[in-house]
Amino acid sequence: MDEKLIEYVKEKNENKQTFSQMLFSLIDEKKFNDVDVYKKAGLDRRYFSKLRGDKNYRPKKKVVCALALALELDTPTCKKLVKKAGYILTSASKFDLVIRYCIENKIYNLMRVNEMLFEMGLETI
């Protein structure tokens, strides 16, 4: 195996927070409890436990968006969390634009966000 490649990956990946680590760090920072967050995000306990138990687990983009809303994140922090999961909120997607609009305008209620998505003819979270 290419030693330069191994060193490159190790250097770029070392001490990097995973999505789950960042998520639970944000929950602690905001002094929220897990139950409130997963209920507000519309997730069940077992799924949330999976997020907590597997630091390398990569949830679907909709789950990441629901968690960003549940945590009432600002735009820069939301972008970082979404990126940690391997996604971006792009201008080419109406779904992403609705999520970005909601985050930018502090619309964090999942029911309201889903209404807005539905009104735009998009799949809800």
Unreliable spans are none
Number of helices: 8
Q: What percent strand?
A: under 5%
Kindly state the mean pLDDT as a whole number? 93
Report the radius of gyration as a whole number of Å: 16 Å
Structural class: mainly alpha
Q: Helix and strand succession? A: HHHHHHHH
Proportion of residues in helical segments = 55-70%
Strand count: 0
First-to-last CA distance: 42 Å
What is the global morphology? globular
Major sheet summary line? none
Could you please describe the fold and organization of this structure?
With 125 residues, this protein is an all-alpha fold. 63% of the residues lie in helices and 0% in strands. It has eight helices and no strands. The chain has helices at 3-13, 19-29, 34-40, 45-53, 61-70, 75-84, 94-104, 110-119. α3 (34-40) packs across α5. The longest helix is centred in the first third of the chain and has 11 residues, at 3-13.
How would you summarize this macromolecular structure in one to three sentences?
The chain has 8 helices and no strands.
Secondary-structure topology with pairs:
Layout: H1 3-13, H2 19-29, H3 34-40, H4 45-53, H5 61-70, H6 75-84, H7 94-104, H8 110-119
Brief descriptors of the model:
8 helices, globular, single chain, 63% helix, mainly alpha, 125 residues
